[in-house]
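Help: read this over?
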Amino acid sequence: MARQLFSALLLLGGLVLGAGYIFDDGRDAVNVNRSIQVKGVFLLVDEESMLARLQRMSAANANREDFLAEVRLMLANEPYVLSSSVRYSWPDEVIIEISEVTPVAVVNQRILLLENCRTVDVDPAGLHARIMAFNTADGKLNESQCRRIVNVLPMLGSIPARHIKMLANGDYILDVEGSQLVVGENDIVNSAEKIRRMASLIRMNRINARYIDMRYISGAAIRRVSES
């Protein structure tokens, strides 16, 4: 009977080792071939690159708890990750859920502006079309300029302008269907409906105007493109 029990234990040990498990100091079993699942809606995070990095980390670290700690540290240092959760699912899966930071604009074609005026240097190619693009007069982005952009964004939500230039005097130039709408600093906040109507007229009537000055109380000045 004892011999049969010993043989059964040997067989069970062989099956466990054959499945790729290692016992670390008697506490828990770790599968060196563990599965990794990354969940989230990704706009900025390169999911494929991150998964490949996680798989390399997993292959180099068989201890489950050490691996999970390493993953949490990595995610804490990722600039595009706002929050994350890392959990182990028996018998051999690690599930990672990620929430990204919220981008609000691209400034000077190279700086990604996040909520709360945080910035990240980024290649804006391929970013979601809903992210508005700003250019500043001096090509820089200081705290004051950052606040101007964040404050004006809610007023631009329904205006079909994707490229906006901030002038040093506080005015803005909105690129709408290839036409430049010039609006004052106060107008962009107080006359959003007027801007929307003008943008709609440009699209509907295919106005070939290079410059439309909106800084008038009751109308706008239009400089049409020369027919020649």
Remarks:
- Helices lie at 2-18, 47-60, 64-76, 143-152, 187-190, 192-205.
- Confidence is low (pLDDT under 50) at residues 14-31.
- The chain is about 30% helix and 30% strand.
